[in-house]
């Protein structure tokens, strides 16, 4: 017995009714960037089915260098594999979703951050950069950061949203936008 045992039983039920689908672009044409918080499961709060959307999850749902790398690779993969199946206006929309009551909010407090750095060995600056104290502010900053990334395909758009833990409601803060092309080249 492990803590996984009851979940594996659920998987048995899942597998019993399962039909595999072909590899294809995500049906909703969305790549979600969300917090790993178990109260913010994008499949549940956004009513996703298997194959609907890619979800990239990390602490806070922050647009880190690793997230930007993943998105660049996904865009490349989508162009290579699904060029005939994706909409002319773009490959997919990256929806960054930050949330209220995020556990990273504590990192905005210098004392807490200092203790966290000592205990984990992580740099204080990295911990400060991860903090989501005001999700409306951080989600705007992260969408702008993503849109400014040189590796972002012009065929990818980005939008920003806030999930309210108290109401279960997702509110759009920034509508989907494609990156500005640098100059006219
Ligand atoms: Zn969180």
Give a short summary of the structure.
The protein has 185 residues and is α/β, with parallel strands linked by helices. It has 6 helices and 5 strands, in the order H-E-H-E-H-E-H-H-H-E-E.
Descriptive notes:
The protein is globular and about 50 Å long. With 185 residues, it is an alpha/beta fold. The protein has helices spanning 5-16, 42-45, 65-82, 110-120, 124-130, 135-147; strands spanning 30-35, 53-58, 92-99, 156-164, 169-177. The longest helix has 18 residues, at 65-82. The protein has 6 helices and 5 strands. Bound molecules: zinc ion (ZN). Zinc ion binds at residues 35, 37, 60, 99, 102-104.
Return Rg in Å: 18 Å
What characterizes the major β-sheet?
A: 5 strands, mixed
Give the N-to-C terminal Cα separation.
60 Å
Q: What is the 3D shape?
A: globular
Fraction of residues in helix: 25-40%
User: What ions, cofactors and ligands are bound?
Assistant: zinc ion
- Average predicted local confidence, pLDDT: 92
Which series of helices and strands comes N to C? HEHEHEHHHEE
Total count of strands: 5
Q: From the helix content, strand content and strand pairing, which structural class follows? A: alpha/beta
Count of alpha/pi helices: 6
Low-confidence stretches: none
Strand content: 15-25%
Strand arrangement in the largest pleated sheet: 2-1-3-4-5
């Amino acid at each position: 017995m492990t803590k996984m045992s009851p979940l594996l039983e659920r998987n048995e039920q899942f597998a019993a009714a399962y039909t595999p689908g072909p590899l294809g672009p995500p049906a909703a044409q969305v790549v979600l960037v969300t917090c790993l918080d178990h109260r913010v499961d994008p499949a549940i709060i956004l009513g996703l089915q298997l194959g609907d959307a890619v979800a990239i999850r990390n602490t806070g749902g922050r647009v880190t260098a690793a997230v930007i790398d993943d998105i660049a690779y996904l865009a490349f993969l989508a162009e290579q594999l699904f060029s005939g199946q994706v909409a002319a206006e773009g490959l997919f929309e990256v929806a960054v979703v930050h949330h209220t009551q995020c556990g990273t909010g504590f990192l905005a407090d210098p004392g807490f951050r200092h203790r966290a750095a000592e205990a984990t060995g992580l740099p204080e600056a990295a911990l400060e950069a991860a903090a989501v104290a005001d999700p409306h502010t951080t989600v705007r900053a992260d969408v702008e950061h993503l849109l400014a990334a040189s590796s972002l395909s012009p065929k990818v758009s980005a939008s920003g949203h806030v999930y309210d833990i108290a109401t279960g409601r997702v509110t759009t803060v920034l509508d989907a936008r494609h990156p500005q092309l640098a100059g006219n080249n």
